Amino acid sequence: MNIHQIANHLNDLGDNSHTGFQFDCYPIDGDVExxxxxxxxxxxxxxxxxxxxNQVLCISYLWGEDEVKPERRSQMFETMLELNIPxxxxxxxxxxxxxxxxxxxxxxxxxxxxxxxxxxxxxxxLEVIDELSEFLN
Length: 137
Hints:
By secondary structure, this protein is α+β, with helices and mostly antiparallel strands. The chain has one domain: Yope Regulator, Chain: A, CATH 3.30.1460.10. Helices cover about 35% and strands about 30% of the residues. The chain has helices spanning about 5-15, 75-85, 110-130, and strands at about 25-30, 35-40, 45-50, 55-65, 90-95, 100-105. InterPro entries: DUF2170.
């Protein structure tokens, strides 16, 4: 499995997706192959997919450290920890100075499972942004 197979599958779904979403996928050149996945209507929250020998990693960037109210940072972390378990298929992380939500699947996952992961990750991003907006400038 590679990002081009995922892109072709998602782009070809059109109105026939199992999740009801339409996808626009664009490979990003670089040292690591990355696929930018936009869900139509949610382009402001792109998802990024990479494939390794062991996993398919799906990430969405939420906000930067500079957007967090310094006096509310600890409370934000506490809320993130509380949200982590009830947020299906997704977890929080920090990459450099950016907060992210991510999910991972086996490279043996079906295209339907990858589509489901991306849809849930996108839904979770919207929920997280709504729930944690009080901690942001």
